[in-house]
Amino acid sequence: MGWRWFHQWGSPRWFYERAGRWQLVCGWLALTLLITGSFWGLALAPVDYQQGNSYRIIYLHVPVAFLAQALYAAMAVCAVVLFVWKMKLADVAMQSIAVMGFAFTALSLISGAVWGKPTWGTYWVWDARLTSMLILAFLYLGVIGLRAAIQDPDQAGKACGILVLVGVVNLPIIKYSVEWWNTLHQPASLKLTEKPAMPASMWVPLLTNILGYYIAAAYLILGSMRAIVLERERRSAWVRELVSRA
Amino acid sequence: MSLERRMLTRELKLIAARPGDIFKPMWFLMLVISMVPLALAPDSDLLSEIGSAMIWVATLLALLLNTEHLFQSDFSDGVLEQWLFLDRPLAWLVGLKLIAHWLFHVLPLILITPIAGIMLSVPTDVLLALLVTLVIATPALTCFSGLGAALTLGSSRSGILGVLVMMPLFVPVVILAAGVLIRAMDGSDTLPLLALLGAFSVVAATLVPIAVSAAIRLNIGGSN
Predict the structure, then answer these.
(1) Planar angle of CA A4, A87, A153, nearest 5 degrees
(2) Best exposed site among A173, A174, B33, B157 by fewest CB in 10 Å?
(3) Closest listed residue to residue A99, CA positions, set A233, A223, A234
């Protein structure tokens, strides 16, 4: 006794069945939070005195940018779990998080560019934050590409794990060097978070949306993990049974 | 003769057997540098301003081209497998291989950069700074691109994937080196940045061989 809660994570079937239920809960929760937060933020929250209505993109941009960075850390945790406990599910998680992380990074870059055009007058500047997000996107792409190039899934998973761990050590160094580089080249131009001490009517919906996006990400990741588990376990009896029943 | 010395002599013999391998990256570097004035303008003021940065990027690319297949021949003829049976840690052998690669393949590349500098009319003191940054930074770059080469060993259709995967990790090195060059251009103190660059290189050269050896083990054993 005692370790059952831990060991059951080694069973793909157990995960597949449980994750289906968790996914349902996450899905409804995310939907409720996102509808509430988005409606509140987009329609009810007051107009910004400086940026007008264009500031409202923060209700998409900020949660997505948070997730883009958090997911890399999540991937690194999965890599550690993979190497320490040899848990295959961690590799499945790493695979789906890499794709999702890239998607969120791309979304944050695109939504930032869309906001940048009316506010800064340009889609892209070599601002420290923008640059480090771009590098992050390339790091995610590297993990996805490396997995695609190696045929054996176990080997691909370990190779990606090594890459993710090397990347996570480098990430803070990259972030600080980019910040330093930016101050060297163009001092005091633009900052993404010039916080004009937002009123509660602005940040409460933002917080709702951040929570909503996190849970939505969990929903998406659980869904793609279930699909990957099914694909990897396609030769096992329980998957065949599941497929023949359907 | 010690194992370490035998490994270095083997590398030298391999180079003597195929000397073309050393010259191809140099050739590439010179070609890229010749393209710069053609694509830009033959204006020596402009060239001297961006020249050192151009040489840095071109050397980086040449180095990547050079290191992409670092472990490939040793992998296919079984040498890497023999490494596992030696009484030395794999990371140490990997480190030796990387040192040999740096000495025999990367250093010659650095040594011809002054010629490129003269072609782009880079001032002498900036050229000196360029050489110093390259000598200090390339060990880190060699280690990281070695890791890219080791990670993609097992896949036949990886192409330049190892390069693509590792490039984002070069960002701090490039930024620090560019900082040194900018300071050298306006004559301010470059020592603090050189020290940071050196620190990055030392840490990379210490830790990355461990990751490389894990990647090699993965491609050979598969099971462990």
Answers:
(1) 145
(2) B157
(3) A223
Q: Is B158 on the interface with A (CB under 8 A)?
A: yes
Which residues of A fall within a CB distance of 8 Å from B164? 141-142, 145
Measuring CA to CA, which residue among A102, A112, A109 is closest to residue A57?
A112
Mean pLDDT to the nearest integer, A176-181: 85
Given B151, B172, B219, which is nearest A146 (Cβ)?
Answer: B151
Percent of chain B with pLDDT over 70: 96
**Exposed (0-12), middle (13-18) or buried (19+): which is B150, by Cβ within 10 Å?**
buried
Domain that holds residue B26: 3-219
Question: What is d(CA B144, CA A162) in angstroms, rounded to the nearest whole number?
Answer: 12
Tell me, what's the pLDDT at B223?
42
Domain membership of residue B224 (yes or no) is no
Contact A138 B169 (CB under 8 A): no
What are B32-48's pLDDT values in tens digits?
Answer: 999 989 998 888 888 88
Interface check A165 vs B, CB under 8 A: yes
Q: What is the pLDDT of residue A190?
A: 43
Q: Quick check: A177 contacting B, CB < 8 Å?
A: yes
pLDDT one-digit tens code per residue, A127-169? 888 889 999 999 999 999 999 998 888 899 999 999 999 999 9
Total domains in the fold of chain B: 1
> Rounded mean pLDDT of chain A?
88
d(CA A16, CA B111): 58
B155 touches chain A (CB under 8 A): yes
- Which of B157, B168, B208 shows the shortest C-beta gap to A142? B168
Q: Chain A partners of B171 at a C-beta cutoff of 8 Å?
A: 135, 174, 177-178
Burial A190-219 (b: 16+ CB within 10 A, else e): eebeeeeeeeeebbebbebbbbbbbbbbbb
In a domain, B189, yes or no: yes
pLDDT at position B74 over 70 = yes
DSSP string computed for B76-142: HTTHHHHHHTSSS-HHHHHHHHHHHHIIIIIHHHHHTHHHHHHHTT--HHHHHHHHHHHHHHHHHHH
Decide if B167 touches A, using CB distance below 8 A: yes
| B142 within a domain of the structure (yes/no) | yes
Residue type, A17: E
The ipTM estimated for the assembled molecules is 0.89
Residue B221 has pLDDT above 90, yes or no: no
pLDDT given at position A185: 54
Contact B215/A141, CB-based, under 8 Å? no
